[in-house]
Amino acid sequence: MSKHTAFLKPLCGVLLAMTLSGCASTNKDAKALLNPDPPGKMYASADSYLNGGKFQRAAKKFEDLDRDHPYAPEARRAMVMAAYAYFRAGKYPEAIATARRYTTMHPGTKEAPFAHHIIASCYFEDMNGPQNDQSNAKKALNELRILKSRYPDSKYARDADNRMRIAMDSLAAKEMNVGRYYLKRRNHLAAINRFKTVVSNYSNTRQVEEALMRLTESYMALGIPNEAQTAAAVLGHNFPGSRWYKDAYVLLQSGGLAPREDTGTWLSKTWKNLKVPTIKL
After folding, report:
1. What is the DSSP string of 218-232?
2. Which fold has domain 37-158?
3. What does the pLDDT look like over 59-75, one tens digit per residue?
4. CA contacts within 13 A on the Cβ side of 141
């Protein structure tokens, strides 16, 4: 026997053992895929992970159930619970994608309001302050509106009102920040456009009082008294005790004017046509 043969013989034995071990492992994995646990057992296991705070493990287990038993009664519920587990884990993109898949595949079902609630919650929890980008606030508001319009009797729809108000207030605050920026730089037309947006789209937020006062200020600066008087009149009629109304009243007086509504102005027409009543926060 040559030296090479003597060396190769034990090496071949090692390789053969590794190959057999690999095959055994592969066969074991294949067997697990072909014979997964029953759906009830998988759901109970995932639910146990969820209750124990192991959210990512729970999400994976719910997804395994949905994949391995797509026609089982537990599969549909498992999909939305996977989205919820991802939400609890702070994995918002994964939660949104999974919940969106549910609403696409199973609209109108018992768990559909919960899926929309999860999507809205992800965007809501990830909202930035009014100094920053407001895309998540817009998405949260849109999803909450869908939830309320499609499932008005669900418990999630009943809880959506306060979140909608917070999201709208954040969007309105952003508009006010930009409007004040333009106002300080005497770009009154650009400022007016921002304040008009607050009045027209976010009339039930706490930002509307200042928006009306800033419209009074901007129109006075441009020499358009009837618009300024109308803004102050609307402010005074709806928020008579507001400090912003006091400021608007003093500003008009400094120009020899008083609050007076001109029914031909855009503000008077817009305010009368608003579908959502103004609610002082």
Report:
1. HHHHHT-HHHHHHHH
2. 1.25.40
3. 999 999 999 999 998 99
4. 17
